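Shift notes (night). Ran Histone deacetylase interacting domain-containing protein while the centrifuge was going.
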Amino acid sequence: MSRGGNNMTKLEAVEYLKEVRMRFEDKEKFMEFLKIITEYRVRRMSVGSVVEKVEEFLKGHHDLISGFNNFLPKGYEILLPPKGPVQLEDAIRYVQKVKDRFEDTDDTYKAFVKILTDRNKNGMSVGEVYHEASVVYVFV
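Came back to this:
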């Protein structure tokens, strides 16, 4: 699991896997998780693919997702949902901040809006939206 950008120790990785195993008492479920990790380690799976699979696998286990993020390269972390429901006003305010920030680079704002539109049309995961947005922001 150490292909990530963070310097996690083997002991921390073992402790994390123990926690996952305890949470998913079903041996088959745990083996499925190990298979995902192994496929990633031997480079049969991209970072984006492992993020998608782990995000689905650990759905609802925010502490395990947070722990898994420690093994991922910077920029690929799985976003955790906000503590409470996002209010429409907050979403509008965020989009306005992005628009204001990139007012001199209209293409960047348009790319951001396209990502949000694609999320609604194509059902992109939150992780995919985050990754796409981070790519847009990096090239500004």
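The chain has two domains: 10-69, 88-138. Residues 88-138 form a domain with the Paired amphipathic helix 2 (pah2 repeat) fold (CATH 1.20.1160).
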